[in-house]
Model the fold of this input.
Amino acid sequence: MKIIFFGAGNSAYNIWQQVVKKPGFYTDEYLAFADNNATLWGTNFCGKPVIAPAEINKWEADLIVIASLYENSIRRQLVKELGISKQKIYSYDEYFRRCYAIWIYRKRYGNVEIEEKQEGSKIKDIVIYTAMIGDYDELREPLFLSDDITYVCMTNNKNLKSDIWNIEYISDDSFDDVYLARHIKMNPHIYFHDYETSIWVDGKYQIMDDLRIYISLYQKQSNILCFPHPERECICDEAAVCINSKRGNKKDIILQVAKYLKEGFPLDYGLYETGCIVRAHKDEQVKRLMEFWEEELLKNSVRDQLSFPYVCWKNNFTPDICDLDVNRNRWLLQRRTLYK
Done:
């Protein structure tokens, strides 16, 4: 990938220091820095030329990474004044997540080329499903449709409607809303007997393209395909973030992680983003894994990203992974005002 940074100030300098310190992590080609300060045009910054924003298109960069505190105004400038596609514009945090996911992928599989295959559209008997439990989520309509793909949304909200998703109402007084959503997520084999493959997609994501192509590109030998966590690979780090951001009960999280470590669960074992999971859900090993995962959730904290790597380790199971950030890629996008 060819990259132009937008910004040539302190933020850009600090970002560049991270880039040069980790050449095995940041492996793209860095072309130039763009900046709105005309006095900098034609000079060098961190060994790269500083260019006017109007020159960006001439450089044929693949991505523009905003290296400035004025992210929102720069993003608007790039789109509205310079006609640059939103898909090419990244914040530094988004760019870091992209690089991290690629780094994790290469650690496992090596520096392999990923070639698009045509057989993705031949995958049959596939259901893409989500759950909207409670009334706080907005159901996002998929932008890709095919007669060979069934979209199912399971919900206890009788006001939820969709032109694309098949709405299936569900009620279970034995679970609160959080656990009911997790129960649906973990048990496609219970709900989708007529399908060979299921893809769970969290409700916060919009489906942008044909997920069957995603499967054909990244599924190798495992009956489960996940996104890697694009920021962390250690359960202890994940626990700390959950506690600091008040996502989950602090005591439950600490006891859970302590239990796993006492059993020998290794540090830096790897983490998965569970917002999108592909499963051959009729496979007996996959069924057992999902049942064990739900048992762990019921016994411990509600943070399923803490229990899933442990469940895989305990059962000697390794899901396939991709090299993508689950929040922003060709197939999925976490919608924010930022992108509108």
